[in-house]
Amino acid sequence: MPIYVVVVGSLLFLAFAYFAFAQAAVARNGAQSAADASALAAAQDVRDELADGFINALGNPADATKWLLIELPLQGTGEAAAAQLAADNKATLDGLAPTTVKGYPAFRASITTNYTAGKSILPVTSESHAKAHAVAVIEPRCTLTSGDADDFIEFDCGGDQPPWKIDPKHLNDIALPEAKDLFSVHLAE
Questions:
Q1: pLDDT confidence of 35, banded at 50, 70, 90?
Q2: C-alpha triplet 69, 147, 183: angle, nearest 5°
Q3: 23, 125 Cβ separation under 8 angstroms
Q4: Neighbours of 1 (CB within 10 A)
Q5: Position with higher pLDDT, 107 vs 6
Q6: What would the pLDDT profile of 57-91 be if each residue is shown by its tens digit?
Q7: Are 164 and 154 in contact (CB under 8 A)?
Q8: Distance between CA atoms of 31 and 122, rounded to whole angstroms?
Q9: Please, which residues have CB within 8 angstroms of residue 61's CB and are 6 or more apart in sequence?
């Protein structure tokens, strides 16, 4: 009988310990989701600014090409969008740092959850907040195919979309590309 009590007690302790680790894993996954969302939000916000800069520069094809290939310094930080997505995921944005990945602009978001792993037999879980980070990168989808810096710009963004040929003198005659057509945003780590 005493052996049975010890064995059952040990098994219950192990079950509660595994439950505590599962709680921590859930908190960690939530933190990673919040970090991913924050980094992507920052990159998408800046991607939209790049697309606007490209569209606004179409009157000067040489400048438009620089926007298209991301050869100009970024103006925006995307911090407001990253903080909003962190808050939507019950987390706090600890920092958003611009960086590069393979020569392309990227953003590294670091977050801390607003919640803990919860109460368990391990007291540290009720006081520990999960932390995570993620990096999102902006890459141009398009390649310049031809163009005379004074007349027009022609570029190919791949996929099903035929190559774009934009004449700055006739901008109202065509549907202009959207940000998602020009630049891809994805997680790098």
A1: very high
A2: 25
A3: yes
A4: 5
A5: 107
A6: 877 777 878 888 888 888 888 999 999 989 998 89
A7: yes
A8: 20
A9: 147, 148, 149, 150, 151, 152, 153, 166, 168
CA dist., res. 135 & res. 139, Å (int): 13
Bridge partners for 146 per DSSP: 154
Structure tokens at 76: 């925006």
User: CA distances (Å), 156 to each of 67, 141, 165, in order?
Assistant: 15, 8, 9
Q: Amino acid identity of 10?
A: S
* Structure tokens, 80: 């407001």
5's CB contacts (< 8 A; 6+ apart) are none
CA distance 28 to 117: 8
Residue 188 CA to residue 13 CA, distance in Å, equals: 40
